[in-house]
């Protein structure tokens, strides 16, 4: 399955689930639970937590020069099982509730590596679009990672593979 197919499948599933649930239940406020974070990925003072969501999806790798390199993530971001956003290459998070989006870049040196999972990261916002849950985000943390590591060993150039992963994503805005 190629990356476009995976991304489209995630979008279709999330939008479909959101549409179904929107007619049956009222949208609840964003989860605001503090998640323990290692010192290396702490958000700078002057920011406040606005949301904490679970992400489930895949890390898509492509073989280049006989080695697996990250192509992009493709994940559904959920609040207690209800899809609220999609996460993909950029990295970008787009709200399935209001269309707002945030793009971010990794803060140099702000990562915690794990032997059995993709690293935990601190990312700084590079762009915000639209009005809604992601319009004021200043930082994103990827915490509590499970899975998602590139396969070991050599590969055939041009090949792609998807590796399941999960993480907790926290979204922060400037304290007012």
From TrEMBL:
InterPro entries to which the protein is assigned, alphabetical: DUF3455
A Pfam family: DUF3455
Keywords: Signal
Domain of life: Bacteria
Signal peptide: 1-24
Protein name per its UniProtKB record: DUF3455 domain-containing protein
Organism (species): Kutzneria kofuensis
């Amino acid at each position: 399955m190629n990356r476009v197919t995976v991304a489209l499948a995630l979008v279709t599933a999330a939008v479909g689930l959101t549409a179904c649930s929107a007619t049956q239940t009222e949208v609840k406020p964003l989860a605001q639970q503090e998640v323990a974070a290692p010192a290396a990925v702490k958000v700078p003072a002057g920011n406040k937590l606005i949301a904490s969501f679970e992400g489930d999806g895949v890390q898509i790798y492509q073989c280049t020069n006989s080695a697996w390199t990250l192509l992009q993530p493709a994940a559904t971001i959920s609040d207690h099982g209800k899809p609220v956003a999609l996460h993909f290459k950029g990295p970008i998070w787009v709200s399935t509730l209001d269309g707002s989006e945030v793009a971010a870049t990794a803060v140099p040196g702000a990562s915690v590596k794990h032997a059995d999972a993709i690293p935990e990261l601190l990312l700084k916002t590079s762009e915000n679009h639209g009005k809604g849950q992601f319009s004021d985000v200043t930082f994103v943390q990827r915490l509590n990672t499970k899975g998602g590591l590139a396969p070991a060993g050599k590969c055939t150039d041009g090949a792609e593979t998807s590796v399941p992963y999960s993480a907790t994503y926290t979204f922060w805005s400037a304290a007012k």
